[in-house]
Design brief:
The complex is a heterodimer of chains A (354) and B (244). Chain A is built from 14 helices and 2 strands; from the N terminus they run αααααααββααααααα. With 354 residues, chain A is mostly helical. Chain A has a single domain, classed as ABC transporter involved in vitamin B12 uptake, BtuC (Orthogonal Bundle). In chain A, α13 crosses α14. Chain B has a domain of 169 residues: Rossmann fold, CATH 3.40.50.300. Chain B is globular. Classes of the chains: A mainly alpha (354), B alpha/beta (244).
Chain lengths: 354, 244
Amino acid sequence: MSNIGNQKGAALAPDAEAPGAASPRGKAPHPLRAALGGGGNAAILKRVAIIGGALVIAIAVALLKSGSGLVVWQSVVTGLLMGGLYGLIAMGLTLIFGVLDIVNFAHGALLAVAMFIAFGVVQGTGLHPYLTLLVAVPALFLIGGVVHRGLLSGTGGGSLENQLLITLGLSLLLENGLLMFFGAEPKTVTLPGDFQFGLFGAVVTGARLYAFVGALLLGALLFWLLRRTRFGTAIRAVAANGPGAELVGINVRRIHTLTFAIGTACAGAAAVLAAPLITVTPTLGEQFNITAFVVVVLGGMGNVGGALVGGLLIGLVEQLTTIYMDGQSSLLGVFVVFVVVLFLRPQGLFGRRA
Amino acid sequence: MTILNVTGVGKDFRGLRALSEVEFEVGQGEILGIIGPNGAGKTTLFNVICGALAPDTGRVLFAGRDVTGRSPDRIARAGMVRTFQLMRPFGSMSVLENVSLAAQHERQPARRLRERSLEVVERVGLGQWAHRPATELPTAGLKRLELARALAMRPKVLLLDEVLAGLVPAEREPVLDLLADLREQDGTTLLFIEHIMAAVMRLSDRVLVLDQGRVLAAGSAEEVTSDPRVIEAYLGEEPAGAEG
């Protein structure tokens, strides 16, 4: 709505313009477009080649450092499997940013909430962990909708600073709420009938494989929703041009709420899939939050497809870091990549900014 | 029959009086031209009528119902649709997708939706562009797309904000023909803000002149253009008719 006022001042010029000349566009193509609209194939191929080259070098260095092909292969496999989850988490975050222009600092904390929902349901009812998807995903969808309606869509959520403070405050609130209810001691969710198998020497657990496949399927589902359904088309229209979307009868506020809810539901789904892989603590959201932000920037803010690819890359980086620097935090390498990307390509690997 | 009734509409922007006591009626199937110097409040008036801005005072009645302060999407779905001066298509989509997005507010099967959207795209003369990305359209094409998006909503009242701006005379003709045809064929009521006086003279049943947020004059095109107050308002700029 706030854009409407701009129309006037900026609109006085077009009279002078020659027909057929490129028009003055109100806004540059949105980053979401890069993921969803395609185009610019040569540039993308070049980028893929550069990223591929960097990966080959990184893996070669890891081989030299560790001296064992098996160790490197194992970390590549583990990294990619974990990366799928990072991708799913970041897809939710980047969708929210792309459509609502909200940087949701509570994304990680919401993920933690979902993980405790999964934990609680498994403890309380003995349900299979993956079946808690049926509880955690709708719950997070609902929480996301309520958070948007209650905290972010009113006048208080209007400015960028307020949104940052509100989501940051919410994350603190959620974390401490979890701490109060569940205590600080780490919990585990075990997958009944988990198994292991060898993949050309690398050990893969069933839980990791399921998490990866689940993340990819849900990512594909999200993509299909955005590209192929009327609802998704409306979301893309709102992302591209909010006032224009209102004029074709789209309820922008409703789309905003639903998009926020879908974004947090992604975190909910990722939480359930990740629960058997990690120890569940109230503060686990922080680390996922940081990783997700790096992935979002890497993939281009608002770029849903980029988030998935970025997730896989960050998964790899994390695992390779542990080879480069024994005993160091695996996040260190992630931050190095983050800083380098911000420095060289602040619009992300696949994002296109004005 | 009156389809749009605006009474006592006023709007302030931090002390700047953009509209005050604006009153007028538009009959079903009427074509109302709206003219006035830059900054007269024409676009603000459209924003108020279509719900993008809530007026400080006054009411907007559409088909007998009070729509003051309703959200723009609800008003659009009810059948009062506007176009923007600045064209901003939904960038990631084709021309046809842009249009079918507007048409999909009516629940209908996908095939019917597609047919209807194609119909509208062809009607505005963008047939061969249907499957191209909307961002590739030249200025004249974007204007037509803006119009097509509005038409796909099946408007009862269509508000056009400088739909001819940026078009060369040869490109204006088909648009004017289309607008005349809309009234003849579909019975659409038109309100259009326009600087090009030739178009205003040709199309309008009645003309409303705004100046500094007030209705300065209303009447037939001949009446208002010979009104000394209107000529006075335009002094300092070129006299009406010189632009374009």
